[in-house]
Design goal:
mainly beta, 132 residues, three-stranded mixed sheet, Cystine Knot Cytokines, subunit B, single chain
Length: 132
């Protein structure tokens, strides 16, 4: 029917401009070998879906045309936390990014991890303290 065709066309058009890429709450677990505690830090990261297309003519296109969009930082700031239980000779500070806003774009390896699968390393091996 005409309504179905119009709905599909609207969905395809709107889907290209809309994404579900936004700041999302996340907990980072940080510990240093010298310190007595693991610090759980609540922050925001960019997470979500970005519309992308995979070309069938990969051999005909330049490499720069093949990169796919990912949910990445548009604006971010850094905050610093103090890891408790560190000896005096150790620097007890840890700086981490906080997503202010996000966008769909090319992954920048200067400040993002651009791998498909991540290794599960976000856990504590020491007693945990919460950073507010």
């Amino acid at each position: 029917s005409l309504f179905f065709v119009m709905s599909v066309l609207f969905g395809l058009t709107f889907g290209q401009t809309a994404s579900l890429c936004a700041p999302s709450e996340y907990t980072i677990h940080v510990e240093k070998r010298e310190c007595a505690y693991c610090l759980a830090i609540n922050t925001t990261i960019c997470a979500g879906f970005c519309m992308t297309r995979d070309s069938n003519g990969k051999k005909l296109l330049l490499k720069s045309a093949l990169s796919q969009n990912v949910c990445t930082y548009k604006e971010m700031l850094y905050q610093t936390a103090l890891i408790p239980g560190c000896p005096h000779h150790t620097i007890p500070y840890y700086s981490y990014p906080v997503a202010v806003s996000c966008k769909c774009g090319k992954c920048n390896t200067d400040y993002s991890d651009c791998v498909r699968e991540r290794v599960r390393t976000n856990y504590c091996t020491k007693p945990q303290k919460l950073c507010n």
